[in-house]
Amino acid sequence: MKRFLALILALMMVFALAACSSSDAGGEDVSGGNDNAQDDGSADSGSGGEDGEEVPTEVTIASLDGTGAEIELTVPYDPQRIAILDMASLDILDALGVGDRVVGTADTSLEYLQDYINEDIENLGTIKEADLEAVMAVEPDIIFIGGRLSASYDALSEIAPVVYLSTDTELGVVESVRKNANTIASIFGLESEVEELMGGFDTRIEALVAVAEGQTAIVGMCTSGSFNVLGNDGRCSIIGREIGFENIGVDADIDTSTHGNEASFEFIVEKDPDWIFVMDRDAAIQTDGAQLAQEIMENELTMSTRAYNDGHIVYLANPAVWYTAEGGIQALDIMLSDLESAVL
């Protein structure tokens, strides 16, 4: 009887051990399956963004070449070292919050961009003349230029991809800013930021348009003691194109996009506009010993005009912004403020 009980007990132990062995093997299979799934997932996310999407190393944007022709340009995605030779581009980069990537910049007198003029950021020359050796020394991933440096496009392209954007007066200043801001934002994956930064501009322009309706204007620039009239094809074109003042200063077919056409004060008296808008170029570029725009404009002839007697001669309060940074988001805000304070 004892032997029979011992045999039964032994058989029970064998079955118990077999069951445990089977359970352990099954557990290892499940665990092994989970490990494999986890490896696959981390490989995907390791090569991608937070949502598992692959992060590009390059992006293709619309830019201009040295001749001003539109091209497709491949640039590094999310570049870490930026060289700046255009203030409108620096303005946009600053607004997007990537200004800490700037390793070198052209000199500027613009107050709101003075954080970039310091000993930690290399001086790369001016927006008209780049110091090529300095640009090369900062080893940029990407370079931004404006129209004043178009002749240096090829030389700069030997160093890094060159992004050249401009204001399209046919498109309008506001839409050009929006377009260029979206282009720059796409390089950093920040497209969603642009609409918020541009918010409110359309409403502000509508208020100015209401004042400009049916009003004539001469738009011009004081430089070297003279007054040059500007058309709707270049600087200050927002006044005639988007705000809607009828610019009677020049024939629409005359190219006035650079510095305008010199006009006599007799011409201003003859036209006798409702408004005269004046940008002081010499103040914008800090010309030593230059006459102030007000000193040039307020002479016996112009003081006989309707604009003068109605208090409608407007000296744009921030000429450096109008002259060197038109095309920037923050510049657009300042330019509209100059107009609002004068006409609203």
Topology overview:
Blueprint: H1 2-46, E1 58-64, E2 70-76, E3 82-85, H2 87-96, E4 102-105, E5 122-123, H3 132-137, E6 142-145, H4 153-157, E7 162-164, H5 173-188, H6 194-198, H7 201-212, E8 216-223, E9 226-229, H8 237-241, E10 246-247, E11 261-263, H9 265-271, E12 275-280, H10 281-284, H11 293-297, H12 306-309, E13 313-315, H13 319-324, H14 329-343
Parallel strand pairs: 3-4, 3-6, 4-5, 6-7, 8-10, 8-12, 12-13
Antiparallel strand pairs: 1-2, 8-9, 9-11
Describe the structure.
By secondary structure, the chain is of the alpha/beta class. The chain has 2 domains: 58-198, Rossmann fold; 201-343, Nitrogenase molybdenum iron protein domain (Rossmann fold), CATH 3.40.50. Helices cover 42% and strands 17% of the residues. The protein has 14 helices and 13 strands. It has helices at 2-46, 87-96, 132-137, 153-157, 173-188, 194-198, 201-212, 237-241, 265-271, 281-284, 293-297, 306-309, 319-324, 329-343, and strands spanning 58-64, 70-76, 82-85, 102-105, 122-123, 142-145, 162-164, 216-223, 226-229, 246-247, 261-263, 275-280, 313-315. α7 packs parallel to α14 (329-343). It is globular and about 65 Å long. The N and C termini lie far apart (115 Å).
